[in-house]
Fold this protein.
Amino acid sequence: MDVTQLAGERPSASAEQSEDAQLKAILEAVVYITDEPLSAQQMAAALQQPIDRVKKLLDEIVAEFAKPEHGLSVREVAGGYKMATKPEHHEAVRAFVKKLTPPLKLSLAALETLAVIAYKQPVTAPEIMEIRGVQGVGVLKTLLDRKLIAESGRKAVVGKPILYKTTKEFLVQFGLKDLTELPTLKEFEELGRLEIAEPEAPASEAPAAEQPAEASETQNG
């Protein structure tokens, strides 16, 4: 326990400044990660901090990001705080993005399949089909072609179906250091640039049985 606390004294000014700096950093991070604008009251309640203190630090964050050396701004929107790029930089950012390699675009079906593989790996095609409820041989081929997944041996069961796992390219495309940084399923879906494809046939209607489906994948993979 701190000496000042034993003596019944208030923390020093330097200690208060350090605590404010830490809370300010947390508030900045909270504003960055949230999709919807959060009010000062919501943040104060969640962090169990006095509303006046939170509001003061948020005002400091707004003022700091308003400086011309920052490309982002933090401002009040719809009763809460949100971080965004500054309007004066929109054209430059848009021009920059156009020069980048075309972004990874996956159909909703491909993204769902990739999510199943990421969280259940190593996993077989029949297991993926059981979870998603649809056939997905073509989707697996797409993911293999894009090097987002790779074969990982065969499962020691009847038929020895192929096991699939994610690759280093998957980590690169989704900005992950390793698999321990996998986001929640909701966040994972939002990471992809979705391009809605034709609906797949339900598994119950698919003519291919489990064994032929796996054999087909072997030929395509």
Q: What stands out?
A: Residues 13-33 form the longest helix (21 residues). Residues 105-220 form a domain with the Arc Repressor Mutant, subunit A fold (CATH 1.10.10.10).
